[in-house]
Amino acid sequence: MRTSLPMRLWQARPWNTSPLMRVSDRFEVVVRALAVLLAAIAIPMAGAIGTVSYTGAVDRITAQDAGKSHITATVTADAQRMLESDRMRVPPDRYQAPVEWVVDGRTETAVVEVTGPQVPGAAVPLWIGKDGRPTAEPARPGSAAAEGIGTGIAILIECWCAAAAAVWITASVLDARRNAHWEREWKSINRPIGKDSQ
User: Residue 125 and residue 118: Cα distance in Å, rounded?
Assistant: First the structure.
């Protein structure tokens, strides 16, 4: 008759008084139980860390994007294809051009990346910061949520991998010790090959 799963789990408990259960078996069961506990605890822990990461990302992105404005600048010279640097290969369709714009009554200029081979007088969109200088466009909606979710998932995977590694390493070490023990016992009860009495 096949033993049910709950019964097998109960028989594998570390405090089982059965003399057939070795110390190494008890230790391995404890490690597996702790690994399962860690995997379970990791779920709410990852959620909490992900929430903290999301809150921090919201505050950081809000501070970074505060005061950014979207304006239209005017190209003042022909756009030039961006040259390939020694460390990074630049796609052939990337251009940069000198542009100018007016902010708070003063004219500002800069060389920025533009789309395609723009000509003088062309209007190009540009994001500027509080200082009136070009800056990166604001973070996309959902960036903070993506960062929080990514952090939570990373923590969860790390905890699960650590638990799995602990179980695997423990099983490997104990199996090696058991095999060595069996080999020693086998040699003790068997005569060496070629030593049989005539």
Answer: 12
Nearest CA-CA partner of 98 in 72, 70, 118, 127: 118
Beta-carbon neighbour count of residue 95 at 10 Å? Answer: 17
DSSP for 108-161, written as a single string: EEEEEEEESS--TT-EEEEEE-TTSSB-PPPPPTTHHHHHHHHHHHHHHHHHHH
The three-class DSSP label of residue 71 is strand
pTM above 0.90, yes or no: no
What is the model's pLDDT at position 86? 47
Token pair in block for residue 43: 């779920």
- The predicted model gives 91-97 an average pLDDT of 76
pLDDT at 82: 78
The strand pairing partners of 113, in sequence order, are: 96
100-104 LR contacts (CB < 8 Å, sep 24+): 100/73, 100/74, 100/76, 101/71, 101/72, 101/73, 101/74, 101/126, 101/128, 103/71, 103/128, 103/132, 104/132
Q: Which two tokens stand for residue 176?
A: 């090696």
